[in-house]
Write a sequence for this structure.
C-alpha cells in the first residue's frame, strides 16, 4: 500500500478536525473533484512537485482539497450543496481547510441574533464566510493572498466592521521536513500547505470585554473511513483540560485516553465534538486512516496564556474561557437530518 502524509500549518487562534459523512461523494479521486469544482469557480491550483492544493476565492477562500500524487483527494466536498437552494443555517460546501469567525455561542456570538435562544432553529452562519465570494489579491504557482471585508452584528448588539486576510502557500518536501524535524522517506507521497489568517478592526470603536470581539476559527474537513482515528495530545495534569460533550457525551467506544493522547473515532457516522483548553493543548494534532494509509497532521500556533473565546451555545458559561483545539466527527442529527 502506498503511504501518504498530509500536513497543514495553521497560524490561527482556534483549529479543529472534522470528519464528514461521505454520502455526497461522487466518483472518488482528485481529477474528478477538480473537474467538478472547475464547473463552479475558476479555482486556483497551487503546485510543487507532485503536490496539488485547490483554493477557491469564490467559495470563501477555502482549500477545497489537496493531493500528494494527483490521484487521491484528501478533502471532503459536498457535491449536493453546489446546486441546492440556499440553506437558512449553513451552506455546507465542504472543504479541507476553511476559515470561519467565532464565537459560535455565548454573549458575543456571531451565529445568533440578539434575544434569540441559542438553539439550532435560530443558528445561522454569517454570509461573509458562508456563501459570499472573497477578493483575490495575488496569486502565484505556489501561493495566494485573499481578503474579505465584513460587517456583522454580534449577539450582544455590537456592530463589527473588520477585514480578514488569508494567505495560503504550498510547501515542498524540504519545507515539510524542516517544519516537522524529520526526513520524509522516498516511499512516502506528501502534500502540505500553510495558511496565515489575520483580522483587523476597521470600525471606530475598540473591541474589549464589554463589546466582545470575533476570533479566527480554522476548520479542516476530511474524508472519513471505518478505520480513521483522530489523535489529540494534551497535558493531563491541567484541570478541566477536556470538554468532551459539545453535542452530548461521546460514547466510550468512540473516545479513549492513553498516555496524554485522546483517540477519537472519525468514521462520519455519529455526531460528536470535543475540545482542549489552551493551557492543556499541544501545538499539533493528527489522524490516521489505516484503511487508506493516510497520516494527516495539523501544526498550529498556540498561546497557553491567552483568552480563547468559548464556542459553546448558551449564555451560562464564561465567554472568555474556551477551547483552543477541537475535534469533530459528523453524523445524523437527532431528527435524522444532517448538516
Amino acid at each position: 500500500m502506498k503511504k501518504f502524509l498530509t500536513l497543514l500549518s495553521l497560524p490561527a487562534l482556534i483549529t479543529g478536525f472534522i470528519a464528514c459523512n461521505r454520502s455526497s461523494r461522487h466518483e472518488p479521486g482528485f481529477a474528478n473533484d477538480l473537474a467538478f469544482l472547475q464547473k463552479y469557480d475558476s479555482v486556483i491550483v497551487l503546485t510543487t512537485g507532485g503536490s496539488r492544493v485547490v483554493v477557491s476565492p469564490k467559495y470563501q477562500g477555502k482549500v477545497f482539497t489537496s493531493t500528494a500524487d494527483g490521484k487521491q483527494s484528501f478533502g471532503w466536498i459536498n457535491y449536493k450543496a453546489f446546486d441546492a437552494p440556499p440553506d437558512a443555517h449553513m451552506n455546507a460546501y465542504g472543504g479541507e481547510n476553511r476559515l470561519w469567525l467565532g464565537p459560535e455561542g455565548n454573549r458575543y456570538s456571531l451565529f445568533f441574533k440578539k434575544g434569540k435562544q441559542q438553539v439550532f432553529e435560530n443558528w445561522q452562519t454569517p454570509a461573509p464566510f458562508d456563501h459570499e465570494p472573497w477578493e483575490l489579491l495575488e496569486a502565484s504557482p505556489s501561493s495566494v493572498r485573499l481578503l474579505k471585508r465584513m460587517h456583522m452584528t454580534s449577539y450582544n448588539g455590537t456592530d463589527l466592521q473588520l477585514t480578514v486576510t488569508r494567505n495560503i502557500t504550498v510547501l515542498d518536501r524540504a519545507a515539510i521536513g524542516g517544519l516537522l524535524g524529520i526526513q520524509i522517506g522516498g516511499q512516502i507521497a506528501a502534500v502540505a500547505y500553510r495558511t496565515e489568517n489575520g483580522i483587523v478592526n476597521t470600525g471606530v470603536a475598540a473591541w474589549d470585554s464589554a463589546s466582545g470581539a470575533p476570533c479566527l476559527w480554522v476548520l479542516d474537513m476530511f474524508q472519513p473511513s471505518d478505520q480513521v482515528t483522530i489523535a489529540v495530545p494534551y497535558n493531563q495534569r491541567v484541570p478541566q483540560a477536556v470538554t468532551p460533550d459539545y453535542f452530548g457525551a461521546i460514547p466510550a467506544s468512540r473516545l479513549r485516553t492513553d498516555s496524554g493522547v485522546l483517540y477519537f473515532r472519525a468514521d462520519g457516522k455519529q455526531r460528536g465534538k470535543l475540545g482542549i483548553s489552551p493551557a492543556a493543548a499541544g501545538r499539533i494534532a493528527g489522524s490516521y486512516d489505516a484503511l487508506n494509509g493516510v497520516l494527516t497532521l495539523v501544526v498550529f500556533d498556540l498561546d497557553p496564556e491567552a483568552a480563547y473565546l468559548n464556542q459553546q451555545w448558551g449564555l451560562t458559561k464564561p465567554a472568555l474561557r474556551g477551547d483552543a483545539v477541537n475535534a469533530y466527527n459528523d453524523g445524523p442529527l437527532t431528527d435524522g437530518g444532517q448538516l
About this structure: The chain has a mean pLDDT of 91.
